[in-house]
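We recall that each integer encodes one residue's backbone shape. We quote one record:
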Amino acid sequence: MTGPDLDSLRLLVLVDDLGSIGQAAGALGIAQPSASKRLSTLERQLGLSLVDRTRRGSALTPDGRVIAGWAHRVLTEVDGLRTGAEALRTQRGAQLRVAASMTLAEHFVPAWIGEVKRTGPDTYVGLEVVNSEQVAELVARGRVDLGFVESPGPWPGLATRRVAADRLVVVVPAGHPWARRRRPLRAEELAATPLVVREPGSGTRETVEAALRRAGTGPVKPLLELGSASAVRNAVIAGAGPAVISDLDVVREVAGRRLVPVPVAGMELGRVLRAVWPAGRRLTGPAAELLTLAVKSGA
């Protein structure tokens, strides 16, 4: 049996999304008769009725909706393939591909990469800055040679090595009532308070969630979800609400009293920052050198 072509699958998905063959054809820039013919060919190839055609319009059959769902996944993977190929082309044959979560990318990785470049000036390093969950995905899919994460894990299928340590701190602006507390916050108070937080998948968010679980309280109550530490920091300074953030990200603001750290009793907010790479793979070349530098720096 001849397999369906991608254009026909894309047409089927658009019929499902837009509700008619005519609109789907228009979105693809083809005539409606051509779209109908293409769908008929697809039905013959699969041996299924995919579209109900009536005077009132067209709609997918139950089988058509199932096939459209599968087709959507196929097209997503193909788009990912194209994006990955483009990334490989634009990396200009990078010898070392690295992904790092936000805190590591801002405070640690540039110095490590700089040392790699010092000892090997011709080494090209490609760095992607994403959250910890996305770093692990890039490593697992072979898109990068080495990753650096700040989430506690676990990381199934990945080897890990400690490279640094970090501590999270609760911060509020100077005018916040917590800034004048004489006693530490209790974990229960923190869990009950809406917080400015990072997005799900970020190492900071997962570390806070894990610390609250260990303290026996409920999960974080998000007041705002933001995509970077700087956005969280600025939101707190602007008075949006308290946040739990790496102390590395608020050193200047705490020193200048724009933010005030608030102690919390009964919670461990320290965390280990790790390098990750595919389990069972021996790192070589610039990737091995970068890992060695990172471990030595952390020690």
Notes: Residues 62-90 form the longest helix (29 residues). DSSP finds twelve helices and 13 strands in the chain. The mean pLDDT is 88. The radius of gyration is 25 Å.
